[in-house]
Amino acid sequence: MSTNQQHNDLHNTANLAADGNAGANGNTNHQKVEEVTRGMSHEEKAAAQQAARFGYGPLAHVRTAGGDMLPAFGGEFQPGLYKPVEGRKFANPAPLGLCAFALTTFLLSVINLNVRNLAGNNSIIIALAFGYGGLVQLLAGMWEMAVGNTFGATALSSYGGFWISFAIILTPGGFDIVAQTETAGGGASLLNLLGLYLLGWFIFTFLLLICTLKSTVAFFFLFFTLDMAFLFLGIAYLCPSAGAPNVGCTRAGGAFGILAAFAAWYNALAGIADTSNSFFIIPVAHFPWSVKGRANRAAAREEEHSA
User: Fold this and answer.
1) What per-residue confidence (pLDDT) applies to 63?
2) Residue 306 burial (CB count, 10 A)
3) Transmembrane ranges (predicted)?
């Protein structure tokens, strides 16, 4: 194991080497690096030099794997470009979070559509929102943070928090939120607060939607339909009819919620299915203006020219 002095030497020589020093000084710096990192593998040497350049702080963990950046892929819940994780010891947590979101959204949307006269029967949603859509999705969001996916961590953790908070609102007796709100301001106050609550989630989802514009069609479709669901449900509460949420807007929100649920399941399957467990790979349809889309067009043109 290297001493602190050796770490300092490596830090200095790595910075000098990064500055492009040549000649005798360059050879001397190279010899010092080789001396300090003697006994390390090639990967360990590269990691040690990278860490030394950034003083062993948070930037020392910047991924510097060679090769091209990976394209956007809905199954990774990552809309932007990112570098691969070398020797990753974590599984991909995105499909778990997407499935937790999908099932809870699906059931609530079925109730909003009044399928089999289930409108207003929210008891099962409380259990599902606490356990699967809430807790499990929140855990998936924390694991996304561990693998370095800021978007996935933000989205899954936030929607996990949404389902937990929604379950708290619906829980009778224990939290008594609905009864206290109605006592303080009446039924209209409750509807207005719930409408603003849902519109707040509409705004948040719109911010995430912007980040998917250079991603895949499947990924964009998920956030677009979810955004529309929040919008129509928010309007349903803010523009009630006969003292209850507007039926037409509620059902429109339920319809978009169904689409969002199946889009989430689709993206989850795209992250699970690979050549080791499936006979086919799920297409996610990259936008033509995305990096992957442009690369595909360039490859097609080169193939036409070569032919």
Assistant:
1) 44
2) 6
3) 90-111, 123-143, 150-170, 190-210, 217-238
